Amino acid sequence: MPMYQVKPISGSHIKTDLPTCMYKLPNIHAPQGNCCTSEHAIQNGEVDPAVKALEARQDEIMKKLYNLKAAVEGLAKTVTTPDADLDLTVSSSLCSHSPSSTTFKGLSDLDTLLGKDLGALRDIVINANPAQPPLTLLVLHSVLCQRYRVLSTVHVHSSVTSVPPQLLSCLGPRHADSYARQMFQLGFTLIWKDVPKLQMKFSVQNMCPIEGEANVARFLYKLLSPYPSDPALATLVDSWVDTAFFQLAEGSAKERATVLRALNSALGRSPWLAGPEFSLADIACYCCVLQSGSASSTPTNVQRWIKSCENLGHFSPAKLFLQ
Q: Does the structure show a pLDDT above 50 at 95?
């Protein structure tokens, strides 16, 4: 039994016409089989402005989605590389040229060296101090761009207060398709950061960081060409690389003079430091001679060798950087 009764306040005979839709819009889709003659999509021979606006909006949304995807992938790299936190994205570039088969005799396979590509961009992250720019890496980056499709990016870390303009653009201008990371084979991310030694990280799950410009140069060079199969020749290459960085780059004036005499003697017996073929030894020694300021006062054989290196065209980034 109800507690109380209330009389109805309206009669049951009232009828209300409800709308069948919230609002009406003209049909912008063409009839099936006649997409080019829709009276709504085409007016007076021209596409309806509403259709154009819709297409432009869709393109803009897709571009934002690609940018968002690239940003998320970048954040994922930061999560797996804790000290590679970034504050300012400066530039990205795509390098795609024909390989220089005359310089590098052997071919390296990225899948063999870095693991099979499972869809994510294989990104090499390098932390470098702007007070000591790695000229060797700029040269190797230039050569990598001739062999692979490389997405190159420069960032500035919060530990660095200011970076010269030439360092911000050292890997080239930003590419229009840099948001489409799936277009590239290899990522080359350079972070200007206050670090005591140059450091490279590739896969924090599978390998430890690599420290020192010489060791990073060895890693990058193997992406271009395998080391000599002859152990003695491979040891000779490594010896010249160490000599370049420890004596030419960091040694005293007396040590540099000794190395220049050794270079002159070796280059009197062969066109390149490790024999008849160009190698990492030539890249390392050339960059260190250039950076030490000794290029103008070198012996005759070294002068000839410097010109031979410059004729290859790989050393333009390093040479322009010091001008």
A: no
